[in-house]
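Z., the sequence and structure:
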Amino acid sequence: MVPTYNEKDNLEELLRRTNDACAGAGIEVEVVVVDDNSPDGTGALAEELGKKYNVKVVHRPGKLGLSTAVLDGFKAASGDILVVMDADLSHPPEKLPEMIGKINAGADMVIGSRYVPGGKVENWPIHRRLISKGATLLARWLTKVKDPMSGFIALKRSVVEGVQLDPVGYKIALEILVKGNVSKVEEVPITFADRKVGKSKLGAKVTMNYIDHCIRLYEYKKPWMAKYIKFALIGGIGTLINLAVLWVGVEIFVVHYLWAAVVAFIIADTNNFIWNRWWNFRSKTKLRVQYPQFLWVSVDGLMLNLILLKFLKEDLMLELGLTEDRASVYILICQVVAIFIVSTFNFFVNSFWTFDKERPRKR
């Protein structure tokens, strides 16, 4: 399965190397190219190369996404072992015999992994490495696989038969690992080479789609974890709002830090409530019932916030011998600690009281 969009310059080498690797191992191979109406003529080239190699081409009307291309490729494929790989030559076709061999030996799914011993990436800048590691960490509680973001996978057809797959974005492997009929997974080390020709499709939209995908999978597998991740994301934004308002109040308007903390708390917490009601808990309870409950929790949280902030600033800072400054970074640090404790308190109380009707139930 090779999804393509503007991969004309890579396709012929990919097919040649794939055919050579499989032929050398005595493996009969069919390559399904799923092309999203590439403006550079990738689809037409695939048809032409089909005269030389065993290629089946699926033409789609437009750029509909990599994951749905893979699903369309599954439907078009003839074999009982399905393989997904990128067209940009970042995945080494020479690893196909090893991956298929492990499937034949009993594995349900095999991952071409960058993060097992022997695996590596080439020519990646530091920001891409950090993004990849962060993405892997986000999926940590969904699977024990070390490289769930890999786009190079092999699996038995039975793994996806009868399974409702609804992937978002590019990471079809993670969707299959969570929802598929997978009992045994193995990882094969690969060297991930940056594309030789063409432009990388990684961008902000891809990143946001991945976060959305992870949240959906947590909702499928671990509903409480999904809600906590959403709560944490909303709380992170609320924290930035809280700190900004606190700093402006103390530094610009010269307000006492406790009064500034009150205003910061109310503004940030109201923002958090709106987002949690609309996005996280998807609540339909009447506001006249729910909002007073929220205010009650907020007041309790505010009192706890002020007590903690006062203790951290006036007691702990003095004990540690830290000098006081009206706009000192120490106040912000104390506020971050207080926010973390209060946010945890708010999550559990709001989950079991304010949004009780919307929280996950045991089935």
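The chain has a mean pLDDT of 88. Strands lie at 2-4, 31-35, 55-59, 81-84, 109-113, 120-122, 153-156, 185-189, 191-193.

Let me know what you think.
H.
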